[in-house]
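Subject: design request, 309 residues
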């Protein structure tokens, strides 16, 4: 499917490939302010990979014509489907269709990431809706649908069969918290866009469980109805609300605030046997330092500390 200018309408320029619970929503919201960037709508189309969210796995060929409808403005196109990184089919699919794509990979200490992801799924009852019971973290970690997004080394080894490291910009999510302006400037240079004066205060700057809004039954019904509206109709409404940092689902009728949680030594003990070797593999393949995460995982799994999120 080709536009009048010769560009394939189903091609994009960049991906925020992952990982879930590593600041990708914040990053997408910030970049969406840039006049020369168009973010996918919805943020996570989940079309190019077999991982359509945490639970869905669809191996059919992507609907490329539908994909073009996710980008409603001109500019550098960015798909923020964060489950793409862990998908085993995505690297070859994207390499065959978009070999020069730029890939922004946001990472977070992987045990914290997994526990945060698990807590989010439990808050929204995602496990039970897909016939699973993740009430016990040990059981959830044993399910590849949670674990795969924390296996950075395993995933990058697949990507490097089809792309070079130059295609990737790897970011520690902590840098977005600690120095957001510098981090965004680095991303702008990687994407090849001019500097833009972002409003960092306007949008939420964290995605902590205590900030999370759990949608009520009425809210879920409203969200389902809203999803039925054609993208061309609802996109201007979404952009209007996002520009004013308005979330209608945060109203008392439609939502409640999530409880916080604690990342404990038990979580580290459960995850450590797999993650330490995987992180060392990631560092060997990319040169991106992970030794501080390995040291923390090994220390925490010995039961010496706990941390609250």
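Subject: RE: design request

Done. Sequence follows.
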């Amino acid at each position: 499917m080709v536009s009048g200018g010769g560009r394939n309408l189903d091609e994009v320029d960049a991906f925020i490939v992952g990982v879930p619970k590593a600041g990708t929503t914040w990053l997408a919201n910030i970049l969406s302010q840039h006049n020369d960037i168009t973010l996918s709508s919805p943020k996570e189309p989940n079309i190019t990979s077999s991982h359509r969210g945490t639970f869905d796995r669809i191996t059919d060929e992507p609907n490329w014509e539908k994909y073009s409808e996710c980008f409603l403005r001109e500019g550098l196109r960015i798909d923020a489907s964060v489950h793409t990184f862990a998908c085993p089919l995505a690297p070859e699919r994207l390499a065959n269709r978009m070999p020069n794509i730029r890939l922004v990979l946001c990472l977070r200490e992987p045990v914290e990431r997994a526990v945060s992801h698990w807590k989010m799924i439990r808050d929204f009852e995602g496990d039970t809706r897909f016939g699973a019971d993740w009430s016990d973290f040990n059981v959830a970690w044993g399910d590849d649908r949670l674990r795969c997004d924390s296996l950075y080394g395993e995933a990058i080894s697949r990507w490097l069969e089809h792309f070079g490291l130059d295609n990737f910009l790897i970011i520690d999510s902590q840098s977005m918290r600690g120095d957001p302006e510098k981090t965004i400037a680095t991303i702008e240079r990687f994407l090849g866009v001019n500097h833009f004066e972002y409003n960092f205060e306007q949008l939420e700057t964290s995605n902590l469980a205590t900030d999370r809004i759990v949608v009520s039954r009425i809210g879920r019904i409203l969200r389902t109805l809203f999803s039925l509206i054609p993208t061309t109709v609802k996109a201007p409404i979404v952009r209007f609300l996002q520009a004013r940092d308005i979330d209608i689902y945060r109203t008392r009728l439609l939502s409640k605030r999530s409880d916080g949680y604690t990342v404990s030594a038990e979580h580290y003990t459960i995850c450590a046997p797999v993650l330490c070797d995987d992180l060392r593999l990631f560092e060997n393949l990319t040169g991106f330092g992970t030794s501080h995460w390995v040291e923390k995982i090994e220390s925490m799994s010995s039961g010496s500390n706990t941390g609250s999120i």
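The chain has one domain: 14-212+258-308.
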